[in-house]
Design goal:
Blueprint: H1 38-47, H2 49-66, H3 76-85, H4 89-97, H5 105-113, H6 120-145, H7 148-160, H8 162-168, H9 174-194, H10 197-213, H11 217-232, H12 240-271, H13 285-293, H14 298-318, H15 320-340, H16 354-363, H17 365-372, H18 377-397, H19 408-418, E1 424-428, H20 433-439, H21 442-445, E2 448-451, H22 455-463, E3 470-475, H23 478-481, H24 486-494, E4 495-501, E5 504-509
Parallel strand pairs: 1-2, 1-3
Antiparallel strand pairs: 3-5, 4-5
Helix pairs in contact: 2-6, 2-7, 3-5, 6-7, 6-8, 6-9, 7-16, 7-18, 9-10, 9-11, 10-12, 11-12, 11-15, 13-14, 14-15, 14-16, 14-17, 15-16, 19-20, 22-24
């Protein structure tokens, strides 16, 4: 059974090291897996404020991620997830080797989920679940990085972050990748302290899972390895054993990802062969990423960046290696992303793992405030700050009351009511048939369906229309799919506007 520490005779809310302790000296009775008993768990839940707060934050994160999970209809990328996941296990791997720019692990997971049914909620279930499980992992990473206060504040930021909530409710790999990256970071930090073979192997395993989930996880993995090399470089002879352990973790990663690495080299060459037609290029990527991570709010972004900067300074004051960690991961990620943005499409969601570093950096600010106001209320104030700011952002955006994605469900129903047998439905650009076909059936509606991307494609469809009316279903993606603007010009000259539903536009033949 756990008991109170006896060292603090003054009755202050600090431990022996003078640090803020929400538990008033309570010592966890669980030091290893062997200590996990009903009695010890009950003791933790009833006596540890950190555990109580983490449970409440996890419950809140669960509600925020699973509420209205199927409300939005699938948009293009989610429809692509459904399309690819519908293939066999080997068929999904064939898609990757054939040119799909996402690793197969998430599609394999979704393939299994589809055995339980086909709906928006089922397709989004795993991202939502792992989004919830990321909350305690953020706590553990923050605790390992510095202390439990850093961990619980970082967990609060994760639980209520509009950015993380949004991607936890999307049938794409981003939330899953973040979960695996966070676990890899946890075992990396533990391994750096203990030199345990087991923890280095687990670092390699979870790094591999992250890479199999999303290629861009490699940036974070590379940053962690580079950090270890930089820290050990000044005393490489004495740290030779540590380098062997790090090498073991890297070998585990390479062995587990070797087939994917070979495919990635070819995919990267294809992806960077021509200039990107969409995404964010250059330095603009940096403020846009911080803006989205901060809840899509510019004022909040400024506040969080200031707090992050203070947190970095605080990290250097505590231990320069901790400051180096925060700075290295952040700068390296942005430098690589800046360079790649001119070679391939680059979007802030690819950098979702930066939330882990960003929130931990902000959480470190509690130390600065605690030096001025020595009360555990400091920690609660930081938790409340994240909850209030994020709650206000979610309410102001109407996230749970309005559509945050294109409403293909409602649009398809309205389209079916407008068409007549023999009409032609054309998706523009052509790949928009994927979300359209998830909700709309040309066979059931007795219409003909096709796709068109260029002005020439549209002209060919128009020439073969006969007496049929053509319905052109258009999204803003046409600007990226046909950067020359021929398709937009053709639509302007040969069609008439017939309506709009969210980001979907309908035109009819004249």
């Amino acid at each position: 059974m756990a008991k109170k520490k006896d060292g603090d005779k003054r009755g202050s809310r600090q431990d022996a090291a003078g640090e803020c302790d929400l538990d008033d000296g309570y010592v966890s009775p669980v030091a290893s897996f062997r200590d996990i008993t009903f009695e010890n768990i009950r003791s933790l839940v009833t006596k540890s404020r950190y555990v109580q707060a983490l449970i409440l934050l996890t419950i809140a994160g669960f509600i925020l991620r699973f509420y209205n999970l199927g409300y939005n209809s699938l948009w293009l990328d989610e429809a692509t997830t459904y399309s690819y996941s519908s293939h066999s296990i080997f068929g999904i791997w064939g898609l990757t080797t054939g040119g799909e720019f996402n690793p197969p692990l998430f599609y394999w997971i979704e393939h299994v989920l589809l055995m339980f049914g086909n709906s928006e909620a089922i397709l989004r279930f795993v991202p939502a679940l792992l989004g919830v499980l990321s909350i305690p992992v953020f706590y553990l990473v923050g605790k390992e990085f510095l202390d439990r206060n850093t961990g619980i504040i970082a967990a609060a930021a994760c639980a209520v972050s509009p950015f993380l909530i949004y991607y936890s409710q999307e049938a794409r790999a981003y939330a899953v990748m973040l979960f695996f990256v966070a676990l890899a970071t946890l075992f990396f930090l533990k391994a750096m302290k203990t030199g345990s073979w087991t923890e280095w192997v687990l670092f390699g395993v979870f790094s591999a899972l992250a890479f199999w989930t999303h290629f861009y996880a490699f940036v974070m993995i590379a940053a962690l390895v580079l950090y270890a090399l930089i820290i050990w470089a000044p005393k490489i002879r004495t740290e030779l054993n540590n380098l062997k352990l790090l090498a073991a973790g890297v070998v585990v990663f390479v062995v587990l990802t070797l087939p994917l690495i070979l495919v990635t080299i070819g995919l990267f060459a294809t992806r960077t062969a021509s200039a990107p037609t969409y995404g964010i290029q250059g330095l603009t990527l940096i403020p846009e990423t911080f803006s989205q991570i901060s809840g899509f709010n510019e004022l909040v972004m400024v506040l969080f960046i200031v707090l992050f900067a203070i947190g970095i300074i605080q990290a250097f004051l505590i231990d320069k290696n901790k400051g180096i960690f925060l700075v290295l991961v952040t700068i390296l990620t942005f430098v690589i992303s800046f360079i790649l943005s001119f070679k391939m499409p680059m979007l802030p969601r690819y950098l979702i793992f930066l939330t882990l570093v960003f929130f931990i950096g902000i959480a470190l600010c509690y130390r600065t405030l605690y030096s001025l106001w020595r009360s555990r209320a400091v920690v609660y104030c930081f938790i409340a700050m994240f909850c209030i700011i994020s709650g206000a952002s979610l309410a102001a955006s109407g996230y749970y009351t309005g559509y945050s994605k294109e409403d293909w469900r409602g649009f398809s129903q309205a389209l079916a009511e407008r068409t007549s047998p023999g009409d032609i439905v054309v998706a523009v650009p052509g790949y928009m048939t994927q979300p359209l076909d998830y909700y709309y059936s040309a066979g059931k509606d007795n219409t003909r369906e096709s796709g068109a991307t260029t002005g020439k494609d549209l002209e060919n469809v128009y020439a073969g229309r006969g007496n049929s009316t053509i319905f052109f279903v258009v999204t803003s993606d046409i600007s990226a799919a046909d950067p020359n603007g021929d398709a937009v010009l053709w639509l302007k000259n040969n069609t008439k506007f017939a309506g709009q539903d969210t980001g979907i536009y309908l035109f009819t033949s004249q």
